[in-house]
Amino acid sequence: MSEENYILISQLNDFVFCPVSIYFHTLYGNLDKTLYQRAEQINGTYAHKAIDSGQYSSRKNVLQGMDVYSEEFNIRGKIDVFDVNSGILTERKNKITKIYDGYIFQLYAQYYALIEMGYCVKKIRFHSMRDNKNYNIKLPSEDTEMDQKFKNVIKDMREFNIETFQQTNLEKCKNCIYEPACDRSLYAD
User: Fold this and answer.
1) How many CB atoms lie within 10 A of CB 107?
2) Which tens digit of pLDDT belongs to each residue from 1-30?
3) CA-angle at 60, arms to 55 and 64, nearest 5°
4) Using CA atoms, how far apart are residues 47 and 35, in angstroms rounded to an integer?
5) Which DSSP category does 138 fall into?
6) DSSP letters along 71-131, please?
7) Are 107 and 97 in contact (CB under 8 A)?
């Protein structure tokens, strides 16, 4: 598969939430995020500043904000934090109230990319920054059902046709930052 057909790791959660949100995210691209994002998204972006600027840790064995790529899945993106010595991969979220499948798929993509790059990943987890809690996630080999779901989402993303998509979940529309602009919304004010 060519590199131009790669999937961004960040798009996995977006696709699970609503495939059309990827279109709007790309469309709005470089606009000021305060014009369309909610406080939760803005706080999440702010929460990643230390990672993105490489200031989370000064330890040499801690990789932060590093670009990763999986040839097997043709996925690319960035990891948050990987401690090479302990083998712990951590995805930081501003505040975790529920662990969604899309979150896990992002972590799996990072895991697979690091493995392909020759790193030994022994543990994967989320860290909720607001309440300072860690949530351990089973490795793909320990949760074959979730691993298969991950692989199915990758396949679904590659085969997705925006022209034929219809949202069926009203709650997703109600909670979508792009809902006011979406012609497939089920939500009426």
Assistant:
1) 25
2) 445 689 999 999 989 988 888 887 777 666
3) 45
4) 19
5) -
6) TTTTEEEE-SEEETTTTEEEEEES--SS--HHHHHHHHHHHHHHHHTT----EEEEEETTT
7) no
Alpha helices in 10-86 (DSSP H): 10-17, 20-28, 39-47, 49-52
Angle between helices 144-159 and 10-17 (to 10 degrees): 80
* 147-to-63, 126, 142 alpha-carbon distances in Å: 25, 17, 9
| Burial bucket for residue 148 (CB in 10 Å: 0-12, 13-18, 19+) | exposed
CA dihedral 45, 47, 48, 54 (to 10 degrees): 140
The amino acid sitting at 178 is: Y
Query: Tokens for 155?
Result: 């396949």
Residue 75 in tokens:
């996925």
Contact 125, 90 (CB under 8 A): yes
The fraction of the chain above a pLDDT of 70, given in percent, is 80
Q: Backbone phi, then psi, for 18, in 5-degree steps?
A: -165, 120
Residue 7, token pair as written in the block: 């999937």
Query: Which residues, listed in sequence order, are joined to residue 137 by a DSSP beta bridge?
Result: 124
Tens digits of residue pLDDT in 80-113: 999 999 999 999 998 999 999 999 999 999 999 9
